[in-house]
Write a structure and sequence with these properties.
The protein is an alpha+beta fold. It has three helices and five strands; from the N terminus they run ααβαββββ. The chain has a five-stranded antiparallel sheet.
Length: about 110
Amino acid sequence: VLLMGGFGTRVTRENFDKVRAGMTEAELTAILGTPRDALKDAQERFDAIGGIAGGLFGKKLPDFPKNAHNMKALEWRNGNDVIFATMMDGKAVSIAAQLTVGGKLETLLK
């Protein structure tokens, strides 16, 4: 099985220790691989649900928050392990992880 992008062994404690707030998406990608754009995925799901709700109930859900235009939520996942970066204006403002270390699931924040 070939693992690519944000999936695979790059989602590790060692790589989490290498990343920090202020890094660009390109810098994070160089360490962690290609991320999933979690905010874009959330917007697409929100829009799809709004369309379904409108068809079923004749009501429209409110628009997805427009102030999210300069924000991005990037996610790298390997099984239960995940590293999540909140981006604002092209730079990481926070990085969080839930990683299995020594057989225990740890939550880490930067």
